[in-house]
Amino acid sequence: MEKKTGFLKDKNKRNFVYVLMASLFSAVILQIIKFYFIDILTKTVSSLFDVFSVFVLVVPISVLIYNARKREKERERIFPIFLKDIVEGIRGGMSLPLAIDNTSLNNYGVLTEDVKKLASKISWGIPFERAFLDFSRNTKSKVIRRSIATIIEVYRSGGKIADVLDSVGNSAFEIEFLRKERESTISSQVIRGYLIFFIFVLVLVGMLKFLVPVLSVPMSTGIEVSTDTPPIDTSKYNVIFLHIAIIEGIFTGLSVGKLAGGSMNDGVYHAVILGLSGYIMLIFFI
């Protein structure tokens, strides 16, 4: 059997590509249906086709990214527990391979499969360093990769592996505690970001409904009426305001996610929620 390499070897990347292709196909089909029936569709129904097209295009991808980030955080939360179990086994008289093999019998949630693979590789005689490097790559977590790198360096230098595992586990616990504390502290800022965005969108809606129509009507000064100045084209403002709402929603969501979670990936679903909300709120006014 031919071994898969590169991009095709990564199951998560393959799933991402499949979902992206399905989303693009669904959005194109909706737009084709709208194009063929545009003459009999009302403005509201036509707008709904646009909304659904955007929805099927961005929501599935954002859900995949959100779930991947959620699994990464869960792995980072469980990883210190895994290290503590190895330390207890070593201090109980087990060798390092035996302690790791013993932990493979435990349930570590999303980390269980990776732990079982690690134990299997070590039991097959694969070197400790290579097995742990593969383990860190499979978790796709920067925190775990840094921790594993520290463990391997100490292992190479001949230090006490149990003490190192214990120290790395304590550091991982501390990082997880600080992350949760930051999220709880920043939650009020996240809510404030959402409120500011929706107020901004409501201001845009108010301008579209009241200010722009007034500006499009020719006004007389009582002295002279200019017939050379054409009225303002409101359709241009409709499109401009729609783009402003979407751009504002995307970048507000990314900044909120970065502030709350420390990564742009945490802002993807915020960006989708805000960008899609701004699009839906304005699409029915253009």
Q: What does the model show?
A:
Helices cover 78% and strands 0% of the residues. α2 (43-91) packs antiparallel against α9 (268-283). It has helices at 11-36, 43-91, 96-103, 112-123, 128-139, 142-157, 161-215, 234-261, 268-283. It is built from 9 helices and no strands. The protein is an all-alpha fold.
Task: Please specify the SSE layout and strand pairing.
Layout: H1 11-36, H2 43-91, H3 96-103, H4 112-123, H5 128-139, H6 142-157, H7 161-215, H8 234-261, H9 268-283
Helix pairs in contact: 1-2, 2-3, 2-7, 2-9, 3-4, 4-5, 5-6, 6-7, 7-8, 7-9, 8-9
Helix fraction by DSSP (H/I, runs of at least 4): over 70%
Which structural category do the helix and sheet elements fall into?
Answer: mainly alpha
Number of helices: 9
- Poorly predicted residue ranges: 1-8
Shape: elongated
Instruction: Work out the number of β strands.
Output: 0
Largest sheet: none
Order of helices and strands: HHHHHHHHH
Rg of Cα set = 28 Å
* β-sheet strand percentage: under 5%
Distance between termini?
57 Å
User: What is the residue-mean pLDDT, rounded to a whole number?
Assistant: 80
